[in-house]
Amino acid sequence: MGSYEPRDEDEAAGMVREAAARGARLRLVGGDTKARLGRPPQDEATLSARGLAGITLYEPAEMVVAARAGTPLAEVQALLAARNQMLPFEPMDHRALLGSTGKPTFGAVAAINNSGPRRINAGAARDSLIGVRFVNGRGEAIKSGGRVMKNVTGLDLVKLMAGSYGTLGLLTEVTFKVLPVSERVATLVFTGLDDARAVDALSAALGSPFELTGAAHLPAGLDGGEARTLMRLEGFSDAIDYRLGELRRLLGRFGAPEVVEAADLWARIRDVVPFAGTGAAVWRLSTAPTRGPALTAAIARTLPARWYYDWGGGLVWLETAAEGDAGAAAIRAAVKAQGGHATLVRAPDAVRAAVPVFEPLAEPLLRVTQGIKAAHDPAGMFNPGRMYPGV
Q1: What is the Cα–Cα distance from 152 to 156, expressed in whole angstroms?
Q2: CB under 8 Å to 284, separation ≥6 — which residues?
Q3: Among residues 254, 256, 122, which one has the least CA distance to residue 176?
Q4: 16, 74, 131, 153: which has the highest count of C-beta atoms within 10 A?
């Protein structure tokens, strides 16, 4: 298998044209920490963004940062932290869950729309992504967006590239809006609630004016001990004290919570640490928050599973046995009944080759997806089959 590692965008475009002329099928990589996301590779060579590194723009007053796609994510985060700023959407580090090594890259954040617990408050990565540069399947360098948010009519290439998993082009540079770091972070923790009551409590808190930036529930026995229902608040210290007091009054029927200010609590939830290193299959289920408990109950009636909730119940991390179809038939039936979609995040290659990894598309939507792929990558050379067969 060959490897391409361009040093700049022009060189990347030339390499893509050369590979296209040979009919090569390319696996796009950055730090390669997410190689086992999606269906198994069907490529002949790799095209790496590792050499496309460096921060190209940082304007703290405008709260904008841009960097080439291969720039280590940690480098960008360190630059922002030095000015008390951060990426709003709290991107997940997949290394613990997938057992991978290397360094996550800035471009990959956009490529998979990598969004953590703060999504309920700040939106997804794509909501902060305001500019991209990429090389399409014709070897053309494309620029879309810029340094400011603006309304767009027609095809929004910035949002289209977010979550495309490298199937449409090689990202060479991405630009994000950033936010200030909060003075204080505190988490209200209720213990002993079952799933349904926990989601009721989270829904009541999220529906209040007290602005949660995290809302999760860990059932009993998961990650140690009693069930814990977690509500994160961020902001100025005096305002946090007021909001904590108001939430205690609002949620009094759910018990007497404690306040925790541990720094690593939400990183464990974000990075799915409770399921790291188990060897089991891991699914990521999205549904309406109030339907989360019914969804997991339906799955548990047909196969052994463990789970926890993020995004107020709307995101379910689910662990099942990795044998057979890793529970795909039961999980997709339950998702169909409750509404939502399911993504197989971790499983052996043989399972990911046999089972749809992403939620299967209805025929009309599949045709649209195939049309978009053909428009940007007419030869189907980038990450072929990574998301869906033939795409």
Answers
A1: 6
A2: 315, 316, 317, 318, 342, 343, 345
A3: 122
A4: 16
CA distance 57 to 21: 34
Summarised one tens digit per residue, pLDDT across range 273-311 is: 999 999 999 999 999 999 999 999 999 999 999 999 999
Write the class of the CATH domain 273-354: alpha beta
The residue to which tokens 């991405």 are assigned: 174
The CATH code that applies to domain 184-270 is 3.30.70.260
- Topology of domain 2-180, per CATH? 3.30.465
Cα–Cα distances in angstroms (integers) from residue 386 to residues 37, 40, 186, 287, 373, in the given order: 8, 7, 39, 23, 12
Domain with CATH 3.30.70.260 in the chain: 184-270
Other Cβ atoms less than 10 A from the Cβ of 145: the count is 20
The kind and range of the H/E element at 247 are helix 237-250
Place of tokens 């759910």: 254
Evaluate if pTM is beyond 0.90: yes
